[in-house]
UniProtKB/TrEMBL annotation:
Name of this chain's protein: CRISPR-associated protein Cas3
Residues annotated as transmembrane: none
GO biological process: defense response to virus
Keyword tags: Antiviral defense, ATP-binding, Helicase, Hydrolase, Metal-binding, Nuclease, Nucleotide-binding
PANTHER family xref list: CRISPR-ASSOCIATED ENDONUCLEASE_HELICASE CAS3, DEAD-BOX ATP-DEPENDENT RNA HELICASE 47, MITOCHONDRIAL
Database matches in NCBIfam families: cas3_core, cas3_HD
InterPro entries found in the cross-reference section: Cas3-like_dom, CRISPR-assoc_Cas3_HD, CRISPR-assoc_Cas3_HD_sf, DEAD/DEAH_box_helicase_dom, DEAD_box_RNA_helicases, Helicase_ATP-bd, Helicase_C-like, Helicase_Cas3_CRISPR-ass_core
Ranges for domain Helicase ATP-binding: 254-450
SMART domains in the cross-refs: DEXDc (SM00487), HELICc (SM00490)
Organism: Tepidibacillus decaturensis
SUPFAM superfamilies, per database record: P-loop containing nucleoside triphosphate hydrolases
Amino acid sequence: MEFYSHPDKKLIVHLQEVFNINKDKVEDKFLKAYEIMAYGHDFGKFTTYFQKYLLGGKRNKFSDHSFTSALFVGFCAIKEFGENNSIPLIIFNTVLHHHGNLENPSNDLPSSFKEITPNDYLILEKIEIVRKQIEDLSINRDDIGKVYRILGYEDCFKEFLHVNIEELMKKIKRIEVLTERNNKTDENYFIHQTLYSALISADKLSASGTLIPEEKYVTYVDLNREREEKIKGKSGEINRIRREIFESIQENIQRSYDKTRLFTITSPTGTGKTYAGFFAALKLKELLNDNRKIIYSLPFTSIIEQNYDVIKDLFANIEDFESEKGRYLIKHHSLANMDYNTDKYDIDKLRAELLIENWNSGIVITTFVQFLETLIGTRNRMLKKLTSMKGSIILLDEVQAIDISLLPLVDHVLKKASELFDLRIIMMTATKPFILNGAVELLADHQKYFKFFNRTKIIPILEKKNILDFIEEFNNNIENKSYLIVCNTINESIKIFNGLKNIGRDIFYLSTNLLPVHRRKRIEEVKAALDQGEKIILVSTQVVEAGVDFDFDVVIRDIGPIDSIIQCSGRCNRNGLKDIGEVYIYSLYDDEKEAEETLYAKYVYGNSTLNVVKEILQNQAEIYEEDYFKLIEQYYTKIQEKKNKDKSEKLINSIISMNFSGDKSANEEKDRIPLQKFSLIENNAGYFDGFIIYDQTAKKVFDRYLEMIKEKNFYKSREIYLEIKNTLRDYTVSLPVKYQGIFNEQYGLHVLPYEGVEDYYNMITGFIREEKGYDIL
């Protein structure tokens, strides 16, 4: 009998491909474990139940293959590694969940290794299914035996047909108990994740028949030639400083490349960190004499697009770059188009998605979410690319954007991953948080550059002020200058915009209350006006703090964290071509709670952070840019003392104990947070995504969405999704659930039809909200 893993692929071919695709990415000491997983992960597909299902039969409990496959690999692993080793447990769990997200192995094992009781009724049900499947496998034992003779596991297969399932499960449970008791280490977690990643990425590549293009790399000399061409003729003091910083960093990486795995670049905003850091990574790659992947990770998609274009332009004279772009350079984030350019290989959108999600390129530009939720997490889709990270050079830019409560966790994981995955990490920032202590600073005299720059000064005005008083004061003091006003909440920003819109000056509005398609257009309008020297006013939220290249004469920011204030100052007198730019810090309170004088900032940042900020800023009339470095050090020192580290510590405990999903049969332990709950972006409880059919483009994409829903072929449906996903997001806005009734729920989308747009949305400030409220987004 012939056995198939997929309609057009023989099972033996698939098993061999899964092993061969990633065998070179697995350390030698774990290669046997990976071989067992690769050859056994689809063992359950040898049943006639699955083969009939593959030919168009109905799916049923006997055609499911993951649990039987997990027991088979667990059995083979115990034969190979014994019962006093964590590897059989790791292999069992990775195969068990190779079609879904990771969970704790205890969720599919008996509650005790001593006996299986009636309380384990779900396990008993699964045991009966496995017995039935083994009976079925026995019918075709000769044909299956031939396959496993070729693979080298015939004896293991024949013994498994006679195994006592209950005893096998109790053995695996015992290994789990011993691992939890005696062998809790970070290393177990990273072994688990590496093997899981190798399996699921190879499984998907084989199943889709994707040919894996060879990654392409470029030399430091070739790209630096283009960089020098681009900066040729640029004069002025700031460009001299940028060149000096660049050369200093390149010299220091050459001196210290073999002394550590961890590096930092601490340099003021606007001093060319993108070039300096990227070329340091290129030089490091060549000094290590290896074709290591460079992974450039940033907090926001807007910065990714900007930095991707900067780096892409360096390839102008690389002969085959345009025809083989995907092999040299990709960007990967939730809004990126799934285009993998290569003339050498035939890559459709579905295969392009796989290659991009597996980071199949010499240089990858991606988000913190993609990078950190691959190192920490349980999601199948994220973890595919972990195996591609091994040996990479990681650039981390603007790390201050990470929630400070997660920094101890990030610090812990980066240090462990650098050791276990042979990573080199370069962290770049103007406001350096307290992580990666002991790293080599590549701009050793960075403090002098902070002292050199005197483009801006912070002016704290900390007495509480309501919106009406602020608007009146602004009107009375406005000068012939451009102004950026940064608010903490959308309601606050709209109130200020409406209060100023008749001021007799061009005034713009920007926040996530606008559809993304309109937000991009607004940014272009503001930049064009500023470039022409117009003295405009922009009222915005924190959306401008990073990745938006604005240059205003004056910035006014509602009080917030010091690092956010300094990021805002980077939108003021950016190139140092004007007099010292003024950055005013106000403490604006919610007019609707006037009796309490509740600060808008409290809704976003909480009291403890704000108290630290007030403590640092009070009694200071002006703080010049030359003192920002000292200011941020003072802030991080105080905030570390006050900030609760419980969240990080509980997640670290879950890494050590491989606590992926929590124990469903018991109360969650107080000292652990299951890793499935880790997210770099906090979900906004009480919010929903609303799709607004604002124009004909939105209407067409919604019609296409309906076609996708009706399409029964998964691959065709997925192709349509990849075609329309960015346009869908362009017309989607996150809103409080109190507005959900305005939208019609249609096939998984909350839709505001074209007929309702005039009443609920405008291009000036976006979604029309109630006047009362303090929505954060």
